[in-house]
Structure formats: C-alpha cells, structure tokens
Amino acid sequence: ADAAWCVCKPETADAALQKTLDYACGARADCTPIRRNGACYDPNTVRAHCSHAANSYYQRKGQAQGACDFSGTATLATSDPSNTGCAYPASSSASGTSSTPATSTPGTTFTPTNGVLGGSSSSSSSSSVS
User: Is the pLDDT of residue 114 over 50?
Assistant: First the structure.
C-alpha cells in the first residue's frame, strides 16, 4: 500500500477546521505535538494543526476507508506534509499506539451542526494543556 496522509483542505473555513481539530483530538488523535512548545506547534495555524490531528486520527484508525473525511474538511494526500522537526506518521505503527484495534470505536461519524462553534472562537482553544 502506498503511503498516505490525511490533511485538512486549504479552502475550508477556519471555523470548520477548528471543529475537525477538536473532534480528532478528542477521538484518539495524538495532539501533543501541536500544543504550545510541541514539535508541530509551528506553523501555528488552524489548518496546520487540523492536518496533524486529522492525520494522527486517520493513522490510528489503520487508514480505514472514510477515516479521513471529517464531513468533507479533510482529504488524502500522497505527498508527505511533514516539515522540519515535525513528522506526520504515515502508518498506525508510527503513531505510537498499536494496542487498540481500529474496529473498537463504533459511532465515530462526524456531523457538525451547521458549522457553529461551541464558544471556542479563539484558535488556542485546543491547546489548553500547558
């Protein structure tokens, strides 16, 4: 299988990207690297953080079909989005957890309600852990 990465679409509005970011980080994605002082904190943009979280989620789901959709905010890429000091895993084994099978999370369909943010208007809402 060719390597694939899940990245957030550049044309998506930041509000929708923030929802995807919050969802992925709350659903098994490894979001430690995109917190302040993390290896992937820079560039500090919602899209960059969204892509890292979405990719982590996708890899941890074993690259399952449909695991990189997030209501149309993300898409698969065949070029490595990693940058200096910030690696995007290309497989579930590289993302740190292989202990839980990809089939153990039922009901993870992601349906935002009209793109309304739950009061998290600031881009730092997902990096509350200092």
Answer: no
